[in-house]
Write a structure and sequence with these properties.
- By secondary structure, the chain is α+β, with helices and mostly antiparallel strands.
- The chain has two domains: 208 residues, no CATH class; 154 residues, Reverse transcriptase/Diguanylate cyclase domain (Alpha-Beta Plaits, 2-Layer Sandwich).
- It is built from 13 helices and 19 strands.
- The protein has a six-stranded antiparallel sheet. Strands 13-14-12-17-18-19 form a six-stranded mixed sheet, sandwiched between helices.
- Strand 2 and strand 3 form a beta hairpin.
- Helix 1 runs antiparallel to helix 8, helix 10 packs antiparallel against helix 11 and helix 11 runs antiparallel to helix 12.
- The longest helix is centred in the first third of the chain and has 80 residues.
- It is elongated and about 135 Å long.
- The relative contact order is 0.08.
- InterPro entries: Biofilm_reg_signaling (IPR052155), CHASE4 (IPR007892), GGDEF_dom (IPR000160), Nucleotide_cyclase (IPR029787), Rev_trsase/Diguanyl_cyclase (IPR043128).
Length: 503
């Protein structure tokens, strides 16, 4: 009695130790996971903030740079559009020598202004300088059409800023550097190139005056060439800096809309990710700590994981064996009867059939070839029954050479008999193995629910009694619980007693 109590105490202590070890293991794992998650979250948050701050800085840099480029273009243009000499040479009558010397000779070469257009009070072009060549007014129409709204806005800006002085008007503030500049700008496409466009009324800078009425407007077009964009990107430290249509942005690119209103073009560049630097610097240290913790826990974890896996596999195997036949993998009698009860109790269908199958001459095969070949025959027969029944019902093995089928579909007499014939024919087919071949036969008893019985057990019993009648009447046949035997096809040669060698 004392020994029993001691054994129980030791078992209880062993259990407590195992539970305590598991608790310690779980706590250690939880600490390591919490440490990893907290540090990962912290690094991720820091990286996300760094990425967002960097993205905002980049967009701010790009916006400032484009504003600066537009202001440079406006300032370059104002060398003509904000000048008394230009007022005298262009407003009333055009001085073509002035145009050649002051526009054609240096707008393109010095400032990269590809096209300069002057729009008269009647909105018609009065001159066009393309690069360093003076062109006809007719060629300027496309430029004026493209920027007609800018021309109108420039005139409105002038109208709000002009002041009467003497017989004319002047603008006292600087047209570019003042808080409310006179020029208007946009980014638009001309002849397949994206251009910065600046429009400004030609105004005097000193003593000249403009007459009343619609003023002349100077338009300048400066293309944003790939070389220009590359230079801007290099200066700002941005990779793949370029201009794209707003609907064709490259993947993983940051964007900045350009121009007025709904943007037709955007500046794009590859996003910078400071978070990668943060991760690159911090990750080795974090990984090192986690590795040390993992190594410390690995020995404990491995032991418990292996034990749990063995237990899990054992439980799964036991659960499978509780409801399945170990040799064939088919459901066993317990699972079959449970399924039968479920079908009848839930009234899933109004009719079903049970087929009890018993092998003929199986003992002869066992005696002749031994149990290994007998097991092979059982497995082969099980596979043939399963194939014949298919999804029409459930096949199970309930004994040594006994099988049973719960049939849910094709329940009319002709269909059931046809299935029984197919099962018998399949079972009777030759079974070839290394060193020989053999065959067995089969008899089948059939009963219907609720035609022949009202409970699951009574239906199975009726089918079993029909099987007994079938074997009594000569084997190799099907006998119906509610009728006479179904005569078999001509018997196959009995290879159970005289097995032939495999070919």
């Amino acid at each position: 009695m004392q020994q029993t109590a001691t054994g129980s105490t030791e078992h209880w202590l062993d259990g407590r130790k195992r539970n305590l070890a598991l608790v310690i293991y779980l706590v250690c794992v939880a600490v390591v996971i919490a440490f990893a998650l907290s540090n990962t979250h912290m690094l991720g948050s820091a990286g996300g903030i760094a990425d967002e701050v960097r993205a905002q800085d980049e967009r701010h840099l790009v916006r400032n740079e484009f504003d600066r480029q537009v202001e440079i273009l406006a300032d370059d243009q104002s060398r003509v559009s904000h000048w008394d000499e230009a007022v005298r040479a262009l407003v009333a009558r055009i001085d073509w020598t002035f145009v050649q010397d002051e526009i054609a000779n240096w707008h393109w070469e010095d400032f990269g202004i590809q096209a300069t257009v002057m729009v008269g009070p009647d909105d018609a072009p009065r001159l066009l300088v393309f690069e360093d060549d003076i062109r006809s007014e007719a060629e300027a129409k496309a430029y004026v059409d493209l920027a007609s709204d800018l021309v109108q806005q420039a005139r409105e800006a002038y109208a709000s800023a002009r002041e009467r002085e003497g017989a004319g008007f002047r603008v006292t503030r600087h047209p570019v550097r003042s808080r409310d500049p006179l020029y208007v700008s946009d980014v638009r496409e001309m002849d397949g190139e994206v251009n910065m466009i600046v429009a400004q009324v030609i105004v005097p800078d000193d003593d000249a005056r403009l007459p009343d009425g619609p003023p002349n407007v100077l338009l300048t077009f400066k293309p944003l060439l790939p070389s220009t964009m590359s230079e801007i990107g290099r200066k700002l430290g941005l990779r793949d800096f370029a201009i794209h249509p707003a609907n064709a942005v490259p993947p993983d690119s940051d964007v900045l809309p350009l121009g007025r209103g709904a943007p037709r073009f955007v500046a794009t560049w590859v996003r910078s990710h400071p978070s990668t630097v943060i991760w690159r610097e911090a990750l080795p240290l974090l990984v090192g700590v986690l590795v040390l913790a993992a190594i410390a826990l690995g020995f404990v974890a491995l032991r418990f994981v292996r034990s749990l896996r063995r237990l899990q596999k054992s439980e799964e195997r036991n659960r499978f064996l509780a409801n399945h036949d170990a040799l064939t993998g088919l459901p066993n009698r317990v699972q079959f009867e449970q399924e039968m009860e479920r079908v009848l109790q839930r009234s899933e269908q109004d009719r079903c059939a049970v087929l009890c199958i018993d092998l003929d001459r199986f003992k002869q095969v066992n005696d002749t070839w031994g149990h290994p070949i007998g097991d092979l025959v059982i497995r082969t027969v099980a596979a043939r029954i399963l194939e014949a029944v298919g999804d029409r019902g459930m096949s199970a093995r309930v004994g040594g050479d006994e099988f049973i089928v719960l049939l849910r579909d094709g329940l009319d007499r002709a269909s059931v008999l046809a299935l029984c014939d197919a099962i018998v024919a399949g079972i009777c087919s030759q079974i070839v193995f290394e060193g020989g071949s053999t065959s067995v036969g089969a008899s089948i008893g059939v009963a219907w629910w609720p035609d022949d019985a009202l409970t699951a057990k009574s239906v199975i019993r009726s089918a079993d009694e029909a099987l007994y009648r079938a074997k009594q009447d000569g084997r190799g046949r099907t006998f119906l619980a509610a009728g006479s035997a179904h005569p078999p096809e001509p018997p196959l040669p009995d290879r159970g007693a005289n097995p032939s060698p495999a070919i």
